[in-house]
Amino acid sequence: MSSRKRSGSRYSKKIDIQYFLVSYEGGEDERKYFESMKNTISRRFENLVFFIPVEKSDVHHSSPQHVLKDLENKATQMNYKLKSDNVYGFIAFDVDHYFSQAHQRNTKTTIQEAKQKGVYLIISNPAFDIWPLLHYENVALLDEKTKKQLITNSNQFLKKRMRKALDDNNSVISDLIPNTIIAIENNQSLQFDLTDPPKHLGTSMHQLIELIDAYLITS
Predict the structure, then answer these.
(1) Are residues 202 and 130 in contact, defined by beta-carbon separation less than 8 angstroms?
(2) Within the chain, how many helices (H) and strands (E) appear?
(3) What is the DSSP string of 88-102?
(4) Cβ(178)–Cβ(135) under 8 Å?
(5) Burial letters 75-105, b for 16+ CB under 10 A, else e
(6) Beta bridge partners of 21
């Protein structure tokens, strides 16, 4: 990625301490993925780059509003200011459910609030599972029927396909970090639009990857 190509000049200078906080709505898969990102920070950046996955304060409350609140509470607890130049706050949630008619207004309000507070958005359509799948499959090349099944995601169609892709490649969620360049390329093909997340399959996970990539062990 471009950030990796520039990394030589970045390493030659003293970098400021960087803090990355990611609050997420999902369960075990997201936890494993973000924990693996934390564990993939290169040792050369020990005590310089800190990645903090923020787990839900209440497993029964996973709306974007609660995800944002958990992020803010964690930042306050650790005395980090989200609008600081060296603090990057992210909230991760799915289009599934939270862009439906009943929740759309609250979700859009939360998105606006997050932007005002300098918080980045990781939104996935229909769900986080699209990101692991993109490490192994160029979804844009699938037939229209399959793409429709993925975006509708009835009976966990997306999760089942993602699990099969992992199994077929003898892989697990926590192994994905070294292959992010493939996932980003496949995601670009989907033309995911963060201004209208329900429109296309895909995710804005690249916003996090592009900021943290230079500090990760990716080989």
Answers:
(1) yes
(2) 10, 5
(3) EEEEEEESTTTTSTT
(4) no
(5) beeeebebeeeebbbbbbbbbbebbeeeeee
(6) 52, 89
- Take residue 77 and report the two structure tokens written for it: 């607890």
Contact 217, 143 (CB under 8 A): no
Which residue do the tokens 């009835």 mark? 154
Q: Exposed/middle/buried for 48, CB within 10 Å: 0-12, 13-18, 19+?
A: middle
End-to-end, the C-alpha distance of the chain in Å comes to 13
Low-confidence ranges of the chain (pLDDT < 70): 1-15, 219
> What tokens were used for 67?
């995800």
Paired with 20 in beta bridges are: 51, 88
Prediction pTM value: 0.89
Give the residue from 65, 64, 52 showing the smallest Cα distance to 21: 52
* Amino acid (1-letter code) at residue 114: A
Q: What is the DSSP-derived secondary structure letter of residue 138? A: -
